[in-house]
Amino acid sequence: MRKVLVIDDEKDVRYVARISLGRLGKMIVIEASSGEEGIALAKSEHPDFILLDMMMPGMDGAATFLALREDEETASIPVVFLTAIAKCAEVQRLKDLGARGVVLKPFDPITLPSKVTALLDA
Amino acid sequence: MASLRAYFRESTAERLREMTALLDAIDRDPDAREHLQRHFHALSGLGATYGYPRVSELGDEGERTNDPARWRELVDAVAHALC
């Protein structure tokens, strides 16, 4: 059973992701509401992958991602970004940073599990 | 999906109360505009996910405007969209 860490400051995103990935996707879902909390949980929980929001107050998604990459404990954990930004250039920039993929908001909770699985297994 | 929609209606009702309070304080709270933009951004990204695409549309417009009067109209429109 895959373990996913969802990092998003919005509780409503974390809630629907938990329902979607946990119930439909049969994954173990751990949640963090900030980049700092997410980094700490990534180290303690060793998730199989991370779903990371781009726009968070304080430590945003990009800064969180870089911090995860710079720490040998978390550097190899695949990261899929969650973002409302639809511009192709921005999506490519995230992939160039090393993200496994991008899921655009608003996402479909029914297809989210298969979407992230496809990104991880590609 | 029905339970997700019910959760979202309740959660968004609370969010709209917060947004209304921010609008009421906009002339004296220097952070109110930023917080309101953040709320509209959240609505944009959440509405369709929870089965309310109209809420996402309204959130998009809220992100693109900087007019408190229009923001109030959009808050009301979001409330109606959830009925």
Rg of chain A, Cα atoms, Å: 13 Å
Estimated helix fraction of chain B = over 70%
- How many separate helices of chain A? 5
Q: Write down the secondary-structure element order of chain A.
A: EHEHEHEHEH
Radius of gyration of chain B: 12 Å
Cα(first) to Cα(last) distance of chain A is 18 Å
**Strand arrangement, largest sheet of chain A?**
2-1-3-4-5
Q: List segments of chain A where confidence is low: pLDDT < 50 over at least 5 consecutive residues.
A: none
Most extensive interface between two protein chains, with residue counts = A-B, 15 and 17 residues
How far is the N terminus from the C terminus of chain B? 16 Å
Main beta sheet strand tally, sense and closure of chain B: none
Overall structural class of chain A, as computed from helix and strand content, comes to: alpha/beta
Shape label of chain B: globular
Helical proportion of chain A? Answer: 40-55%
Number of strand elements of chain B: 0
Structural class of chain B, by secondary structure, is mainly alpha
Q: What pattern of helices and strands is seen along the backbone of chain B?
A: HHHH
Give the rounded overall mean pLDDT of chain B.
95
Give the assembly state of these chains: heterodimer
Q: Uncertain spans of chain B, ≥5 residues at pLDDT below 50?
A: none
In short:
By secondary structure, chain A is an alpha/beta fold.
